[in-house]
Design goal:
By secondary structure, this protein is of the alpha/beta class. Strands 1, 2, 3, 4, 5, 6, 7, 8 and 9 form a 9-stranded mixed β-sheet that branches. The radius of gyration is 18 Å and the shape is globular. 47% of the residues are buried. Bound molecules: SN-glycerol-3-phosphate.
Length: 262
């Protein structure tokens, strides 16, 4: 049985407010080998890490990310919503802001691979090129560790194909919706021409699916897996990574897998 890599979804988002530096650092401290985040573009074309195109759900601001400048977004509180009943956040305010991609890379480089989700390439002109420019400015694309530092993922086939042309060295993962045709073995063969892995919904993953993906040379990293019994099922199925909100539960499940093997 393979020990799947731990991929902390939006950081350790069950334990700290998603995509904030607090969630990223928590994931790293808990041993995540990979940290997943989402990128959007501000009005002044800065890459920021936030899941939604809107600021409403995870900050005390409102409106679209693309309608505000970075300085305005930086003033927002992206963490207090997480702490219910008026409990005081156990982090200083700087750790609970919307981070730039560069700030997140400063935390993850040398410690974990950053899995960057191009969430809404349809909303932004040239998001792929702007992302690669941002990675280059952060020193990622010029270094020999580029492949270890970042991997890119999207539901958009067009984005991934473009990234394969623009930056073939940076690994890519095709996200797959639960009802997608890509879950057939034939489609996996096509996906393998422009990515190194697939991230299917956990409910799509069986041992047969994993074997078919591996036959095509693709890794399998299902999302978003938080139930311990499901983690154990997927470990037995032979997945290569597990995207989870809760690194603690996955640590326990991976440990249980080791115990079962003994
Ligand atoms: O890793 C991404 C996967 O969880 C699906 O995307 O939008 O639910 O974070 P999302």
């Amino acid at each position: 049985m393979v020990r799947p890599r731990m991929i902390a979804h939006r950081g350790a988002s069950a334990l700290a407010p998603e995509n904030t530096p607090a969630a990223i650092l928590t994931a790293l401290e808990l041993g995540a080998e990979w940290v997943e985040t989402d990128v959007h573009l501000t009005r002044d074309n800065h890459l920021v890490c936030i899941h939604d195109a809107s600021l409403d759900r995870t900050t005390n601001g409102s409106g679209s990310v693309r309608d505000l400048d970075l300085a305005e977004i930086k003033r927002l509180d992206a963490g207090s919503w997480f702490y219910h009943s008026g409990a005081k956040a156990p982090w200083e305010r700087g750790w609970l802001r919307v981070p730039t991609l560069s700030e997140v890379l400063d935390l993850t480089r040398g410690r974990a691979t950053l899995l960057i989700h191009l969430k809404r390439p349809d909303l932004y002109a040239d998001l792929e090129q702007r992302l690669l420019d941002g990675l280059r400015e952060a020193g990622v694309l010029d270094g020999s560790d580029a492949e270890r530092d970042v991997t890119l993922q999207s539901f958009s086939v067009g984005s991934l194909r473009l990234l394969a042309l623009l930056a073939p060295r940076i690994p890519r993962i095709q996200l797959i919706l639960p009802d997608s045709d890509a879950v057939t073995a034939r489609a996996l063969d096509a996906v393998a021409r422009y990515t190194q892995g697939v991230a299917p919904c956990q409910t799509s993953v069986t041992p047969e699916f994993v074997a078919a993906a591996h036959d095509c040379g693709l890794t399998v990293s299902p999302y978003t897996v938080n139930a311990p019994c499901e983690m154990r099922r997927l470990i037995r199925a032979g997945v290569d990574g597990i995207i989870t909100d809760n690194p603690v539960e996955l640590s326990i499940a991976r440990g249980a897998g080791a115990a079962i093997r003994r």
